[in-house]
Amino acid sequence: MKSPQATAPYYFVPGPSKYPVLAGMSLLLTMAGASAWVNGISWGPAANIAGILATLCVLYFWFGTAIAESEAGQYSDKIDLSYRWSMSWFIFSEVMFFGAFFGALYYARSITMPWLADLDHKVIWPDYQGIWAGASPAGTVESFTKMGPFPIPTLNTALLLTSGVTLTIAHHALRAGQRSKTALWLFLTVLLGATFMGFQAYEYIHAYHELNLKLTSGIYGSTFFMLTGFHGFHVTMGAIMLSVVLYRVIRGDFTAERHFGFEGAAWYWHFVDVVWLGLYVVVYWM
Protein backbone atom coordinates (compact mmCIF):
# COMPACT_ATOMS: atom_id res chain seq x y z
CA MET A 1 0.00 0.00 0.00
CA LYS A 2 1.28 3.44 -0.87
CA SER A 3 1.97 5.98 1.84
CA PRO A 4 -0.36 9.00 2.28
CA GLN A 5 2.46 11.16 0.95
CA ALA A 6 2.60 9.15 -2.29
CA THR A 7 -1.18 9.29 -2.89
CA ALA A 8 -1.71 12.95 -1.93
CA PRO A 9 -4.22 14.46 -4.40
CA TYR A 10 -2.48 17.84 -4.70
CA TYR A 11 0.48 19.03 -6.73
CA PHE A 12 2.84 20.97 -4.48
CA VAL A 13 3.72 24.42 -5.85
CA PRO A 14 6.57 26.19 -4.02
CA GLY A 15 6.38 29.87 -3.18
CA PRO A 16 8.43 32.64 -4.81
CA SER A 17 12.15 31.96 -4.59
CA LYS A 18 15.27 34.11 -4.87
CA TYR A 19 17.47 31.18 -5.86
CA PRO A 20 16.91 31.24 -9.67
CA VAL A 21 18.07 34.86 -9.87
CA LEU A 22 21.04 34.22 -7.57
CA ALA A 23 22.01 31.15 -9.59
CA GLY A 24 21.89 33.14 -12.83
CA MET A 25 24.05 35.91 -11.37
CA SER A 26 26.63 33.50 -9.95
CA LEU A 27 26.84 31.57 -13.24
CA LEU A 28 27.27 34.83 -15.14
CA LEU A 29 30.15 35.76 -12.84
CA THR A 30 31.65 32.29 -13.30
CA MET A 31 31.62 32.46 -17.09
CA ALA A 32 32.80 36.09 -17.20
CA GLY A 33 35.72 35.15 -14.97
CA ALA A 34 36.53 32.11 -17.12
CA SER A 35 36.45 34.20 -20.31
CA ALA A 36 38.72 36.82 -18.78
CA TRP A 37 41.04 34.14 -17.42
CA VAL A 38 41.67 32.42 -20.77
CA ASN A 39 42.28 35.84 -22.34
CA GLY A 40 44.95 36.77 -19.76
CA ILE A 41 42.97 39.44 -17.90
CA SER A 42 44.18 39.82 -14.32
CA TRP A 43 40.81 39.73 -12.54
CA GLY A 44 39.67 36.57 -14.37
CA PRO A 45 40.87 33.86 -11.96
CA ALA A 46 39.45 35.58 -8.87
CA ALA A 47 36.10 36.23 -10.56
CA ASN A 48 35.88 32.65 -11.81
CA ILE A 49 36.61 31.15 -8.39
CA ALA A 50 34.20 33.56 -6.69
CA GLY A 51 31.49 32.63 -9.20
CA ILE A 52 32.01 28.90 -8.65
CA LEU A 53 31.84 29.31 -4.86
CA ALA A 54 28.72 31.48 -5.16
CA THR A 55 27.07 28.89 -7.42
CA LEU A 56 27.84 26.09 -4.96
CA CYS A 57 26.38 28.16 -2.10
CA VAL A 58 23.18 28.83 -4.06
CA LEU A 59 22.85 25.14 -4.92
CA TYR A 60 23.45 24.15 -1.30
CA PHE A 61 20.61 26.31 0.03
CA TRP A 62 18.30 25.66 -2.97
CA PHE A 63 18.59 21.90 -2.78
CA GLY A 64 18.42 22.10 1.00
CA THR A 65 15.03 23.77 0.66
CA ALA A 66 13.82 21.06 -1.74
CA ILE A 67 15.05 18.32 0.61
CA ALA A 68 13.24 19.94 3.55
CA GLU A 69 10.01 20.09 1.52
CA SER A 70 10.37 16.41 0.62
CA GLU A 71 11.09 15.34 4.19
CA ALA A 72 8.06 17.34 5.35
CA GLY A 73 5.84 15.09 3.23
CA GLN A 74 4.82 17.72 0.67
CA TYR A 75 5.89 15.71 -2.39
CA SER A 76 3.39 13.25 -3.86
CA ASP A 77 3.78 10.81 -6.76
CA LYS A 78 2.96 13.69 -9.08
CA ILE A 79 6.04 15.56 -7.89
CA ASP A 80 8.12 12.37 -8.14
CA LEU A 81 7.07 11.97 -11.78
CA SER A 82 7.84 15.63 -12.45
CA TYR A 83 11.34 15.21 -11.04
CA ARG A 84 11.93 12.12 -13.16
CA TRP A 85 10.93 13.87 -16.37
CA SER A 86 12.99 16.93 -15.41
CA MET A 87 16.10 14.84 -14.81
CA SER A 88 15.52 12.95 -18.06
CA TRP A 89 15.33 16.15 -20.08
CA PHE A 90 18.35 17.56 -18.28
CA ILE A 91 20.43 14.51 -19.19
CA PHE A 92 19.14 14.76 -22.77
CA SER A 93 20.37 18.36 -22.91
CA GLU A 94 23.76 17.13 -21.70
CA VAL A 95 23.78 14.53 -24.49
CA MET A 96 23.25 17.33 -27.01
CA PHE A 97 25.99 19.37 -25.30
CA PHE A 98 28.58 16.66 -25.71
CA GLY A 99 27.20 15.81 -29.14
CA ALA A 100 28.12 19.32 -30.27
CA PHE A 101 31.72 18.86 -29.11
CA PHE A 102 31.99 15.42 -30.68
CA GLY A 103 30.55 16.93 -33.86
CA ALA A 104 33.18 19.69 -33.82
CA LEU A 105 35.89 17.06 -33.41
CA TYR A 106 34.53 15.02 -36.32
CA TYR A 107 34.15 18.07 -38.58
CA ALA A 108 37.68 19.31 -37.89
CA ARG A 109 39.32 15.93 -38.25
CA SER A 110 37.34 14.25 -41.04
CA ILE A 111 36.21 17.20 -43.17
CA THR A 112 38.26 20.35 -42.60
CA MET A 113 41.68 18.72 -42.28
CA PRO A 114 41.53 16.70 -45.54
CA TRP A 115 39.96 19.68 -47.29
CA LEU A 116 42.85 21.99 -46.34
CA ALA A 117 45.38 19.37 -47.38
CA ASP A 118 44.03 18.76 -50.89
CA LEU A 119 45.64 20.04 -54.07
CA ASP A 120 43.34 23.07 -54.41
CA HIS A 121 44.55 24.53 -51.11
CA LYS A 122 48.28 23.94 -51.51
CA VAL A 123 48.65 27.58 -52.59
CA ILE A 124 47.20 28.76 -49.26
CA TRP A 125 48.90 26.18 -47.02
CA PRO A 126 51.86 24.77 -48.99
CA ASP A 127 53.44 23.22 -45.87
CA TYR A 128 50.26 21.66 -44.51
CA GLN A 129 50.27 17.85 -44.65
CA GLY A 130 46.89 17.04 -43.13
CA ILE A 131 48.33 15.46 -39.97
CA TRP A 132 45.83 15.53 -37.10
CA ALA A 133 48.23 16.02 -34.19
CA GLY A 134 51.66 17.60 -33.96
CA ALA A 135 51.65 19.35 -37.35
CA SER A 136 52.43 23.05 -37.41
CA PRO A 137 51.61 24.64 -40.78
CA ALA A 138 53.72 27.74 -41.38
CA GLY A 139 54.78 27.72 -37.71
CA THR A 140 51.35 28.86 -36.51
CA VAL A 141 51.28 26.37 -33.60
CA GLU A 142 54.11 25.17 -31.36
CA SER A 143 55.02 21.54 -31.87
CA PHE A 144 53.36 19.17 -29.40
CA THR A 145 52.90 15.46 -28.78
CA LYS A 146 49.51 13.77 -29.03
CA MET A 147 48.06 12.31 -25.85
CA GLY A 148 48.01 8.50 -25.96
CA PRO A 149 45.66 6.06 -24.22
CA PHE A 150 48.25 4.67 -21.77
CA PRO A 151 48.48 4.56 -18.87
CA ILE A 152 46.25 7.23 -17.27
CA PRO A 153 43.29 7.27 -19.71
CA THR A 154 43.03 3.48 -19.53
CA LEU A 155 43.26 3.53 -15.73
CA ASN A 156 40.55 6.21 -15.63
CA THR A 157 38.36 4.05 -17.87
CA ALA A 158 38.72 1.16 -15.43
CA LEU A 159 37.94 3.48 -12.52
CA LEU A 160 34.73 4.83 -14.05
CA LEU A 161 33.51 1.41 -15.17
CA THR A 162 34.15 0.06 -11.68
CA SER A 163 32.32 3.03 -10.16
CA GLY A 164 29.28 2.17 -12.25
CA VAL A 165 29.31 -1.33 -10.75
CA THR A 166 29.70 -0.10 -7.15
CA LEU A 167 26.89 2.42 -7.65
CA THR A 168 24.58 -0.29 -8.98
CA ILE A 169 25.37 -2.48 -5.96
CA ALA A 170 24.56 0.47 -3.69
CA HIS A 171 21.25 0.99 -5.48
CA HIS A 172 20.23 -2.66 -5.05
CA ALA A 173 21.21 -2.48 -1.38
CA LEU A 174 19.04 0.60 -0.91
CA ARG A 175 16.07 -1.12 -2.54
CA ALA A 176 16.62 -4.02 -0.15
CA GLY A 177 16.57 -1.66 2.83
CA GLN A 178 20.25 -2.26 3.70
CA ARG A 179 21.37 1.25 4.63
CA SER A 180 24.88 0.37 5.88
CA LYS A 181 25.69 -1.60 2.74
CA THR A 182 24.33 1.24 0.60
CA ALA A 183 26.55 3.77 2.36
CA LEU A 184 29.65 1.59 1.98
CA TRP A 185 29.29 1.03 -1.78
CA LEU A 186 28.25 4.61 -2.38
CA PHE A 187 31.36 5.81 -0.53
CA LEU A 188 33.49 3.58 -2.76
CA THR A 189 31.82 5.14 -5.81
CA VAL A 190 32.67 8.65 -4.64
CA LEU A 191 36.23 7.55 -3.86
CA LEU A 192 36.65 6.11 -7.36
CA GLY A 193 35.35 9.36 -8.85
CA ALA A 194 37.77 11.42 -6.77
CA THR A 195 40.64 9.17 -7.88
CA PHE A 196 39.60 9.72 -11.50
CA MET A 197 39.76 13.49 -11.02
CA GLY A 198 43.19 13.24 -9.41
CA PHE A 199 44.53 11.23 -12.35
CA GLN A 200 43.06 13.71 -14.82
CA ALA A 201 44.73 16.63 -13.02
CA TYR A 202 48.06 14.77 -13.25
CA GLU A 203 47.39 14.08 -16.94
CA TYR A 204 46.89 17.80 -17.61
CA ILE A 205 50.15 18.66 -15.83
CA HIS A 206 51.93 16.00 -17.88
CA ALA A 207 50.39 17.30 -21.11
CA TYR A 208 51.35 20.91 -20.39
CA HIS A 209 54.92 20.42 -19.16
CA GLU A 210 56.11 17.27 -20.97
CA LEU A 211 54.06 17.10 -24.19
CA ASN A 212 53.71 20.87 -24.73
CA LEU A 213 50.01 20.16 -25.31
CA LYS A 214 47.96 23.23 -24.38
CA LEU A 215 44.58 24.78 -25.09
CA THR A 216 46.36 26.87 -27.73
CA SER A 217 47.77 23.80 -29.54
CA GLY A 218 45.56 24.22 -32.58
CA ILE A 219 42.25 22.46 -33.10
CA TYR A 220 43.62 19.26 -31.52
CA GLY A 221 44.48 21.03 -28.26
CA SER A 222 41.21 22.96 -28.09
CA THR A 223 39.00 19.92 -28.76
CA PHE A 224 41.06 17.71 -26.43
CA PHE A 225 40.79 20.06 -23.46
CA MET A 226 37.19 21.05 -24.16
CA LEU A 227 35.98 17.44 -24.31
CA THR A 228 38.06 16.02 -21.47
CA GLY A 229 37.80 19.19 -19.36
CA PHE A 230 34.02 19.43 -19.51
CA HIS A 231 33.76 15.72 -18.85
CA GLY A 232 36.01 16.18 -15.81
CA PHE A 233 33.71 18.99 -14.67
CA HIS A 234 30.74 16.62 -14.98
CA VAL A 235 32.58 13.96 -12.96
CA THR A 236 33.24 16.58 -10.29
CA MET A 237 29.58 17.61 -10.16
CA GLY A 238 28.49 13.96 -10.13
CA ALA A 239 30.83 13.20 -7.23
CA ILE A 240 29.40 16.18 -5.31
CA MET A 241 25.87 14.96 -5.98
CA LEU A 242 26.72 11.44 -4.82
CA SER A 243 28.44 12.84 -1.71
CA VAL A 244 25.23 14.68 -0.78
CA VAL A 245 23.25 11.49 -1.43
CA LEU A 246 25.70 9.57 0.77
CA TYR A 247 25.12 12.03 3.60
CA ARG A 248 21.37 11.65 3.19
CA VAL A 249 21.65 7.85 3.15
CA ILE A 250 23.60 7.94 6.42
CA ARG A 251 21.01 10.35 7.84
CA GLY A 252 18.21 7.96 6.89
CA ASP A 253 16.33 10.19 4.45
CA PHE A 254 15.61 7.52 1.83
CA THR A 255 13.39 4.45 2.00
CA ALA A 256 13.43 1.33 -0.13
CA GLU A 257 10.36 2.60 -2.01
CA ARG A 258 11.06 6.35 -2.29
CA HIS A 259 14.59 7.45 -3.11
CA PHE A 260 14.56 9.44 -6.34
CA GLY A 261 17.33 11.70 -5.01
CA PHE A 262 19.59 8.64 -5.18
CA GLU A 263 18.23 7.52 -8.55
CA GLY A 264 18.61 10.94 -10.20
CA ALA A 265 22.27 11.16 -9.15
CA ALA A 266 22.82 7.57 -10.32
CA TRP A 267 21.33 8.34 -13.74
CA TYR A 268 23.71 11.27 -14.08
CA TRP A 269 26.72 9.20 -13.04
CA HIS A 270 25.95 6.43 -15.53
CA PHE A 271 25.57 9.07 -18.25
CA VAL A 272 29.03 10.40 -17.36
CA ASP A 273 30.40 6.84 -17.64
CA VAL A 274 28.96 6.39 -21.14
CA VAL A 275 30.33 9.74 -22.34
CA TRP A 276 33.79 8.77 -21.11
CA LEU A 277 33.74 5.56 -23.14
CA GLY A 278 33.12 7.66 -26.25
CA LEU A 279 35.91 10.03 -25.27
CA TYR A 280 38.31 7.21 -24.56
CA VAL A 281 37.86 5.72 -28.03
CA VAL A 282 37.55 8.89 -30.13
CA VAL A 283 40.02 11.21 -28.37
CA TYR A 284 42.74 8.85 -27.15
CA TRP A 285 42.71 6.00 -29.69
CA MET A 286 41.70 7.58 -33.00
Helix and strand element order: HHHHHHH
Count of alpha/pi helices: 7
Largest sheet: none
CATH topology of the largest domain: Four Helix Bundle (Hemerythrin (Met), subunit A)
Mean of residue pLDDT? 89
Characterization of the model:
There is one protein chain. The protein folds into two domains: 1-75, Helix Hairpins (Orthogonal Bundle); 80-285, Four Helix Bundle (Hemerythrin (Met), subunit A) (Up-down Bundle). It contains seven helices and no strands. It has helices at 19-38, 44-71, 77-117, 152-175, 179-209, 218-251, 260-285. The radius of gyration is 23 Å and the shape is elongated. The relative contact order is 0.10.
Summarize the SSE layout with pairings:
Blueprint (H helix, E strand, L loop, with lengths): L18 H20 L5 H28 L5 H41 L34 H24 L3 H31 L8 H34 L8 H26 L1
